[in-house]
Amino acid sequence: MKVYDVVIVGGGPAGLSAGLYAGRARLNALLIEKDKDGGQIVITSEIENYPGCLPEESGSTLVERMSKQVEKFGIERTSDCIESVDFSGDIKVLKGKGKEYHTKTVIIATGAYPKPIGCPGEKELIGKGVSYCATCDGNFFEDFEIFVVGGGDTAVEEALYLTKFGRKVTIIHRRDELRAAKSIQEKAFKNPKVDFMWDSVVKEIKGDGMVQSMSVENVKTGEVTEIVADEEDGTFGIFGFIGYLPQSKCFEGSLDMEYGYIRTNENMETNVPGVFAAGDIRIKSLRQVVTACADGAIAAVMAEKYIENEGGN
Ligand code: NAP
């Protein structure tokens, strides 16, 4: 039975950074990714907040270079989807589709994905007007109109943040009252740049290369409003904040979590010795490429230390 030093689950920036550090430390490492490398950032058309990124860097070009850099250090790679785990022994077991992996340490870097608004046109226009990250994409809408979908804490807080960029920010919410905390609501009601479309859902997003219009339905009256980009602007922003889906189902019951996010300390250690988590899957305050990479590096170094010092067989 092959026992790895470390198995990294997830090939986004956190997993790739962990792979880079594990490779440099000459650990016997395996990186498992279920799909393509990159996670969420491959759907980001322009990245300008990762230190040292090239001008007009896209998520996919950045990930391509990250993947190549990892390859250089020779860690093993495989494509599989982990379905269950057994972290009870010194040797941890991860069960994929028809294959088991045995390892002294695990780094979980499976990420969290924004829930899609779920209407026609949305997927095609991601990165072309549709976004799920105000910190990443807000400044592309400097002085444009912006629409935010959702009524929870995230939607309202991000709408307030987006008022720094957009000339007007309209919150589209499916009910007539917000779910967000009262203190956050108060700020939004006071902000002259924030407007609301109550009892409303986005039915379709349209555009040729960029978002140009969308249909919004009033769920009480059935009336459909067509929102068309101002002629001079040609486009507007639509930010979806209707919740996130942390990719942690297979770790439920094995690790300490909150709302599906894994709890770690600053060394990325979970409550199970030898199991680390890195990137967006952690409970943390800023989910960005730069913080995911930092987490991945720390997790790999701590995994190496665990193997050396703390008796990883
Ligand atoms: P959330 O609280 O689950 O809110 C999701 C919002 O999206 C709700 O208003 C919901 O509407 C709406 N929604 C859900 N599905 C929808 C759909 N298919 N179409 C249209 N609207 C839809 O998610 P969140 O705001 O991301 O927050 C997640 C957790 O993190 C919460 O516990 C929140 O308190 C916490 N959080 C805290 C802070 C803070 O304390 N500063 C900041 C951010 C997040 P309904 O209201 O009608 O269900």
UniProtKB/TrEMBL annotation:
**Organism superkingdom:** Bacteria
Enzyme Commission numbers on file: 1.8.1.9
Asked whether the UniProt record includes Endoplasmic reticulum among its keywords, one would answer no
Q: Tell me which InterPro entries the record gives.
A: FAD/NAD-bd_sf, FAD/NAD-binding_dom, Ferredoxin-NADP_redctase_2, Pyr_nucl-diS_OxRdtase_2_AS, Thioredox_Rdtase
Question: Residue ranges of the FAD/NAD(P)-binding domain?
Answer: 4-296
Record-level GO BP terms: removal of superoxide radicals
Q: Quote one Gene Ontology molecular function term.
A: thioredoxin-disulfide reductase (NADPH) activity
Q: How is the cofactor bound?
A: Binds 1 FAD per subunit.
Gene Ontology terms: cellular component: cytoplasm
Q: Which cofactors, if any, are listed as required? A: FAD
Which terms are listed as keywords in the entry? Disulfide bond, FAD, Flavoprotein, NADP, Oxidoreductase, Redox-active center
**Reaction(s) this enzyme catalyzes, per UniProt:** [thioredoxin]-dithiol + NADP(+) = [thioredoxin]-disulfide + NADPH + H(+)
Q: Which family does it belong to?
A: Belongs to the class-II pyridine nucleotide-disulfide oxidoreductase family.
Under what name is this protein listed?
Thioredoxin reductase
Organism listed in the record:
Lacrimispora amygdalina
Gene name, Swiss-Prot/TrEMBL:
trxB
